[in-house]
Each structure stands twice: as C-alpha cells, then as structure tokens.
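Fold this: Glutamate--cysteine ligase
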Amino acid sequence: MARDTTDFRPIEGMDELVDYLAAGNKPRDKWRIGTEHEKFPFYVDGNAPVPYGGDRGIRAILEGMQTKLGWDPIIDAGRIIGLVEPTGQGAISLEPGGQFELSGAPLETIHQTCREGNAHLAQVHEIAEPMGIRFLGLGGSPKWTLAETPRMPKSRYDIMTAYMPKVGTKGLDMMYRTCTIQVNLDFESEADMRRKMQVSLKLQPLSTALFANSPFTDGKPNGMQSWRGDIWRDTDNQRSGLLEFCFSPEFGFADYAEWALDVPMYFVIRDGRYHDMTHMTFRQFMAGDARNEITDGMPTMGDWANHLSTLFPDVRLKRFLEMRGADGGPWRRICALPAFWVGLLYDAETLDAAEEFTRDWSYQDVRAMRDTVPEQGISAPFRNATLREVGREVLALSRQGLVNRGRKNRDGFDEAGFLNTLDEVVARGTTSAEEMLNAYNTRWGGSIEPAFLEYAY
C-alpha cells in the first residue's frame, strides 16, 4: 500500500465497518484488474543491496522517477518514500528492505497489465541503470543476511519491526527479504465476494506452488521451493494465514469485520505522526481504550481502512479481493499471475466450474496442502494425486475463462497466452525454484551469483 489513508469521519458503530467493505460491490462492467509486483534492487558491481540514501540509492531512484513521470511524492517525516499518480492510477512504494513495488492502475485487460508492467520496468531501468542498479525478480532475497539488508525510513515499518519478533519467528524475514506478485480483483455482491473468496482461498496453495521461486537464503539453498510461502506459516498468525471462518456457507462482510476487530492494530496517524497501537485491538480502540493515549483517541474511517491494510490472510478482503500467495518472479510472471486469477474468477461459467471443482475441499485439506507446498511445490500430494495434476486441471479452467472473456489485443490474440509460462511448469513437472536449484548444482557451480544475471530486470 503506497499511501496510508487519512479519513477523519468518526466511526459510529459496527454497521459502518461492514458498509465500508460492502461499498466495494461493483457491476460487472466496472470490474478491473490491479496488479502489484515487487523486486529487489541491487548494485551490479558485487550484487550488493541498495541503501535508501546517497547519490546511488533508493531515494535517488524515486526522485528520478518523480521527475520522469510527474507523479506526486509521498513524504514520511520529511523523506520521500513513494510516488502516486495524481489521479490515483497507480503508485510506486517501498517495502521495508528496499523492495521496489509498482501498484498498478485498475485496468480492463491482461494485455494492458502486461504493457503497464513493461513500461514501468523500462522507466525504472532508465533511471537506475546509470547508477549501476538493476532489479532481481525472485520471491526471496538469495544472498544478503537480515543484518546486511537495508531498512527504509518509513514510520509504519519501524512499528512493525519492533512488533514482529513478539508474534512469530519469521516476521522480519517477511518484511525485509521477500517479494511477491499480487492481483486485486472486484466482486459485484456479498454472494459473489463469498464465492470468489472461497475458491481463491482453496487454490492459493496451488498458486504458491506454480510460482515457487525462492529456494536460496544467505547464499545457499534453504531446503524450500517457496521460502516465502514457508515464512508466512509463522509471521503473525493472528492476522495472517488461512481463515477457517471464510469457508462457511454463510460467510459475509460482517464476519470479516468481526475478525478484523479482534486483530491487534499496528498504528494510527494523528497530526501527521504514527502512534504505536500494537497493544490494542481495533475492538478495544472502538471501546475508547485509547482516549488517554492519543489526541482525539476515537477511531475514524481512515483508521479502519489502514487497519484492514495491515491484515495479511492468504486472500485479503478490502473493497476488493487481493490474491497474496505467489512469489515474485521474472517479468513473464507479472502477466501470468493476474491472468491465472482473472481466468478463474471473472468469467461466470469458469467460476461455476472452479467452485464445483473445489466444492468438497475442506479447511483441513487446504491447510495440509498449504503446509506441504513450500517444500514440495507442485509435487506436493493432494488426496490421490499431486498439485501437478490439480494444476493441469485448474490451468485448463483458467485458460477457458480467458478465452470466454474474449479480450483480444490488436493482433487478435486473447489473454490465454499469458498462462503459457505456467503451462510450462506443469508440463515439465518442475517449478522455477527447482530449475534454479538444478542450475546451482550444475552450471552455476554451487554459486547463487548467476541468479543476479539470469533473473534480473
């Protein structure tokens, strides 16, 4: 999230919290695709991490991008920490370890998404290349230790950094050493949201497997195909993971709001300053427990919006649904991730088929799959098959959904071609992580340094 929300309307009661989520309902002709992708900046000389400051640092890249694009700067305590397109059509933000993120504009087709991603990479390359900087498309930082990883001067991250070790063993790795590709998708009603939430929660481990791309940590193999996926198993389980209550046939906006109310907060913003609120749930905040701690200590709608942005379930509900399971990867994956989910969720016939395909998958089934995927990838067992077989069927559904959408580019091609890179994973039976491990053990000669060449933007 590039910019935290400022909305000073007071919250009067629970109905407003639920209505905030329900306001995301949109007619089908207004459905859009918002793609986010992160990458690790590094100095070509020595494959070293890029700090925030200096003439060749993250700040300099942001300032160069601001000059090139004319976007508005996002300032935190006097320092530029992001950019936003003036009409809200996209933003650039920083993750805690300097991961450079594009939050794309809400677009109508995957063709537009792919053009947007290519344009962004070309723009940032134009600014960064003279500084000797390139970007790495992996799901986990392969070389630098946590101590070697830079820290960005962003107030919310200071609060999170202090809090994470209290609630899990891997939260700092999540913050500073992982990258993802995500897509935000719309719904037309509470019932439509429920169906999409349930189908995408059940299939999120498959997405993790297909996009598994983080097999190295601290310069050596880490025993995982998706180290990032493993990290999310013990980051902060009060606010992340697989939400069992979402599997209920009656699940709705109010259920998600009730869950969110009992998750500890990270912060509130008052007078331009971030206040640490990690000792309090939003429900306690609503009850007035912060009156003696901060000026105007009662919650606002901006506080609620910000709180929702600090929840990290496998599929996150805001005024859209956010698919959160995939590792970051090469540029082709930037197009493949939204294509995968749009094909499944945006065509009515295919959503029916995907719902039927996963209908009898229980929470326990999906939890077991989620636990085995980080290590085993598409070879992970599921019932009497593996995720490779499941992936073959689900990709066929997604492809049909994209064909049914019929969104063609100027050359007459529909969006289904963007799934080709995932079809290759299923066809060869190995993930990107396994291909890298094979290279590491053969032509890379036991070194991860070639990854900075072969997986660089």
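The chain has a mean pLDDT of 97. The CA atoms of residues 84 and 91 lie 4 Å apart.
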